[in-house]
């Protein structure tokens, strides 16, 4: 296994034949993988690999801080009182350590390329107990997956795209695990949903109170869209955008999966959720009834966590209604296989050193 991982890391370093981060500005006009998707910065230039990784780091800082603060606030006894075993909390600790590793790796790569990584901001997550903490964890991990998927077309350096993809799959594993211990479907849809950079900043901005100078997102988000009521497929939800004046007909654009987009007329601050949508779904207010783009987005997105229907209980052994995890030492959810490294910090440090070395090698290889 060590030999296989070594070959993989070496191949990443050798394959970095495209422009590295250190020279990304010289490659600013390079087209992304998907035609027509290049974003413009405020200064008129195109977003580069540096810009994309800085935005990824912004989100990773948020996630890492969320777990660090949440685990400091909610003890083992708090998890037990909420119906979760100590093994579940240990696994959440591992999730947090891996998010911290993502921060370290992206920061090291940017520093090696001569860039100043954005710093951690001050956040307000608003969780009040273990269940709300895990509920928000599931949402944030899903947003992380969606953010990386949305950013992928803009990354011009293949080696950096590989690193981003490697993080994306881990974010998806995190989300699936948290959903599982909550008792909700860990894989409700065959496809995850990509969202754009401005939508990511809109969602992240709702948690950011302030940032150190030079670390606040430079890309402007959209006005926030607040959702109230129980989001259920086929039923109405109430959506409000504060301080937003709408003219003419406005639509709710619901997005899920690769190309599943549905437009529903927005009336009296309400829209009906499409009956065919499942899993994490995003909704924005838009002036268009057929093409969703930044220039016709009015507000949002808001997030809807839609159930996967009655088939869920038939296809997976779901946890109990209270989310009780299987006790430590038994087979199943929340345990580690025999012989694995039980040191969360040790494992995270080893991964940080290994991948950071790869990023450094990429940055100086040309």
Overview of this structure, please?
By secondary structure, the protein is of the alpha+beta class. It has 2 domains: 2-21 and 47-218 and 345-364, Ferritin (Up-down Bundle), CATH 1.20.1260; 226-306, Immunoglobulin-like. It has helices at residues 2-14, 49-73, 76-81, 86-112, 130-151, 158-182, 197-205, 312-315, 344-364, and strands at residues 122-123, 208-210, 226-228, 236-240, 251-256, 260-265, 270-272, 279-286, 297-306. Strands 6-5-8-9 form a 4-stranded antiparallel sheet, with helices on one face. The chain has a 3-stranded antiparallel sheet with strand order 3-4-7, with no helix packed on it. Strands 1-2 form a two-stranded antiparallel sheet. Helix 2 (49-73) runs antiparallel to helix 5 (130-151) and helix 4 runs parallel beside helix 9 (344-364).
- Order of secondary-structure elements: HHHHEHHHEEEEEEEEHH
Distance linking N and C termini? 30 Å
Query: What's the CATH architecture name of the largest domain?
Result: Up-down Bundle
Stretches where pLDDT is under 50 for at least 5 consecutive residues are 1-38, 309-366
Biggest sheet character: 4 strands, antiparallel
Strand order of the largest sheet: 6-5-8-9
Would you give the CATH topology of the largest domain?
Ferritin
Radius of gyration, Cα only, in angstroms? 21 Å
- Please identify the structural class as seen in this structure: alpha+beta
Helix content: 40-55%
Q: Which CATH class of the largest domain applies here?
A: Mainly Alpha
Brief summary:
The protein has 366 residues and is an alpha+beta fold. Helix content is 42%, strand content 13%. The chain folds into two domains: 2-21 and 47-218 and 345-364, Ferritin (Up-down Bundle), CATH 1.20.1260; 226-306, Immunoglobulin-like, CATH 2.60.40.
């Amino acid at each position: 296994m060590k030999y296989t991982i070594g070959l993989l890391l070496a191949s990443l370093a050798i394959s970095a034949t495209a422009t590295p981060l250190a020279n990304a500005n010289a490659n600013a006009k390079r087209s992304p993988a998907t035609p027509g998707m290049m974003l413009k910065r405020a200064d008129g230039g195109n977003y580069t690999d540096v810009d994309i990784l800085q935005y990824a780091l912004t989100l990773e800082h948020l996630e890492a801080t969320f777990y660090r603060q949440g685990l400091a606030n909610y003890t083992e006894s708090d998890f037990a009182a909420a119906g979760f075993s100590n093994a579940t909390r240990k696994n959440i600790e591992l999730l947090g350590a891996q998010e911290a590793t993502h921060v370290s790796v992206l920061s090291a790569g940017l520093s090696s390329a001569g860039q100043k990584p954005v710093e951690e901001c001050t956040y307000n997550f608003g969780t009040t107990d273990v269940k709300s903490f895990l509920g928000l964890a599931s949402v944030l991990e899903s947003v992380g997956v969606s953010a990386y998927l949305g950013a992928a077309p803009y990354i011009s350096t293949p080696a950096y795209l590989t690193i981003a993809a490697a993080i994306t799959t881990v974010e998806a594993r995190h989300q699936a695990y948290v959903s599982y211990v909550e008792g909700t479907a860990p894989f409700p849809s065959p496809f995850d949903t990509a969202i754009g950079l401005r939508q990511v900043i809109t969602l992240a901005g709702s948690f950011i109170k302030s940032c150190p100078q030079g670390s606040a997102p430079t890309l402007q988000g959209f006005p926030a869209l607040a959702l109230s009521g129980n989001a259920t497929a086929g039923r109405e939800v109430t959506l409000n955008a504060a301080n937003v004046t709408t003219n003419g007909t406005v639509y709710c654009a619901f997005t899920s999966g690769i190309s599943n987009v549905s437009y529903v007329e927005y009336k009296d601050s309400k829209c009906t959720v499409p009956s065919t949508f499942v899993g994490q779904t995003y909704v924005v207010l838009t002036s268009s009834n057929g093409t969703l783009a930044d220039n016709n987005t009015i507000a949002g997105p808001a997030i809807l966590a839609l159930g996967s229907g009655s088939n869920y209980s038939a296809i997976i052994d779901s946890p109990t209604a209270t989310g009780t995890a299987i006790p430590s030492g038994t087979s199943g959810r929340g345990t580690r296989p025999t012989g694995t490294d039980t040191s969360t910090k040790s494992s995270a440090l080893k991964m940080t050193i290994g991948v950071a070395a790869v990023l450094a090698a990429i940055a100086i290889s040309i």
